[in-house]
Each structure stands twice: as C-alpha cells, then as structure tokens.
Amino acid sequence: MKKNPGRTYLMARLPIAVSMLGHGLDRIPKLQIFSDHLVGQFSKSIIPEKLVSLFSISLPFVELGIGILLILGLFTRFACVIGLITMLALNFGSCQLEQWDNVFTQMLYGLYFVMLYYYAYYNRYSFDRLMSRIPNTKSHVL
C-alpha cells in the first residue's frame, strides 16, 4: 500500500477545522446570548467581568477564523498557534469553573493543534503549499 502523508495530513487537518468553523458559525448569530451566558457563568470566578465579556464576544470570530484558515490550509502554523492559545484560555476558564470534563476536551484540542503544527511539513494539499510557504525538503523541527 502506497503511503501518502500529504493526504493523511489533510485528513487530520479537516476535522478540527470543521469543528472550529462550526463553533464560530453556531455562536455568531446568537452572540449576545452566548456572551451573556458566559458572563453569568463566570460571575463568581476571579476573572473580571469585562475580560469575560470581551473574550466571549471575540471567541466565535477567532474560532471561525481558525476554522477557515485550517480548511484552506492557509497560514496553517499560525492558525495552530492561535488555536492552542485559544484552548489555553478556555482551559484556564474551565479550571476556574471546575468543569473538569471540559478541561480534558480542551487539552485534547490543544494536543491536536500541537501535532498539526509539528507535522505541518506534510501540509501538501493547502494554500500554504501553493504559496510555497512549505519547503520542498524535509527539514521540519519542533
């Protein structure tokens, strides 16, 4: 059986891309409801209400952007870094609320972003490759 790491990377990139896109698309139409809900959840945490409000308003757009970039394979490593930072922020918030199931899920998402970042050399089916942002020689390092 012939191996195709480029196709494998594409198949790994798309599920998290669609997940992030779906999160953003679902939340943007009901942005105020989503924001009010998060602000209410964090009302008894140490995180200031204004920070929660700002984060909750921007989160759906960040998720949407990450999803679009990953679907296209455009600025893939940047999207993975932003995705990881987003997961770290969500993870911290989930710890404040003692939502340990969410913490575990966000850790898996974070690991997923790290792996996509690390193996980005194989991002053959992407706009990054078309724009020659991915080298043709195998010299990827962490």
CA(first)-CA(last) distance? 29 Å
Total beta strands:
0
Q: Any idea how many domains?
A: 1
| Share of residues in strands | under 5%
Mean pLDDT metric:
93
Helix/strand/pairing class, anyone?
mainly alpha
- Can you count the helices? 6
Rg value: 17 Å
Can you tell me the overall shape?
elongated
Helical fraction: over 70%
Order of helices and strands: HHHHHH
Largest sheet: none
Low-confidence stretches: none
What does it look like?
By secondary structure, this protein is mainly α. It has one domain (5-130). Helix content is 72%, strand content 0%. It is built from 6 helices and no strands. α3 packs antiparallel against α4.
Question: What order do the helices and strands come in, and which of them pair?
Answer:
Blueprint: H1 5-27, H2 31-41, H3 49-72, H4 76-96, H5 100-118, H6 127-130
In short:
With about 140 residues, the chain is mainly α. About 70% of the residues lie in helices and about 0% in strands. The protein has helices at about 5-25, 30-40, 50-70, 75-95, 100-120, 125-130.
Notable characteristics:
single chain, 142 residues, mainly alpha, elongated
